Each structure stands twice: as structure tokens, then as C-alpha cells.
Amino acid sequence: QVQLVESGGGLVQAGNSLNISCAASGRTYSDYAMGWLRQAPGKEREFVAAINRSGTMTYYADSVKGRFTIARDNAKRTVYLQMNSLKPEDTAVYYCAGEISYGSRWYSIFERDILGSWGQGTQVTVSS
Hints:
The chain has one helix and eleven strands; from the N terminus they run E-E-E-E-E-E-E-E-E-H-E-E. By secondary structure, it is mainly beta. Strands 2, 4, 5, 6, 9, 10 and 11 form a seven-stranded mixed β-sheet that branches. A hairpin with a 6-residue loop joins strand 5 (46-51) and strand 6 (58-60).
């Protein structure tokens, strides 16, 4: 497993941007596909975005496609989520997660929430 620590959450107004980060430790980090999931109050946790281990492929939930961008810097062991045009419905605790995954549907484990490594979460609040 890898150990994950999120940072960068906060309060922003609708329409603005926010960038959150996830710092990873552990020798096998570069083998992990990484992603972001979120959980709003009273709702189930949902998939947001994922990136493969090399950073060459990304996958997004329809609700954030075109507004959010996931990236990773393996040298810095960090995953980022750039969130633009934020909406009040984006308000949630955002979790960084990772798992070793290969194949053409490498992102499916994020959609299905079958992940072994988790951060503690960072709160993102979007005011209207």
C-alpha cells in the first residue's frame, strides 16, 4: 500500500477554481493508478477522476468532465486535481485513492470504489 495525504481544500465561490493535492509515500507508488473520489453530506461516495500509473491516460465522471483536470508528478509523488468553474454541488470531502491496476479498463476499480489506499480527505466547499 501507499500512504496518502491530501491538502489544498477550502471555501471558494461558485465559478472560481481550486487545486487540491495528494502526497504519496511508499516504495510502490509508481505502480499505482491514482484517483479522486468525493462524498457530499448525506450522499454516497462517488468517483471523480482517475489517472493511470504513467500519467498518460485519464478518466473522468461526466459531472466534472471539461471542468476538472487530474495530473500526477511521479518524481514528486504527488497527484493533483485542478477544479475550475466550481459549482455548489461540487461541495464534498475529496479523497485521494490508489490501487495497482492494469489493462484497458484500468479505471474501473475507481468507478466501482475497489481501492486499497486512501487519504484522510480534504473538505471543498463551494458557496453560491
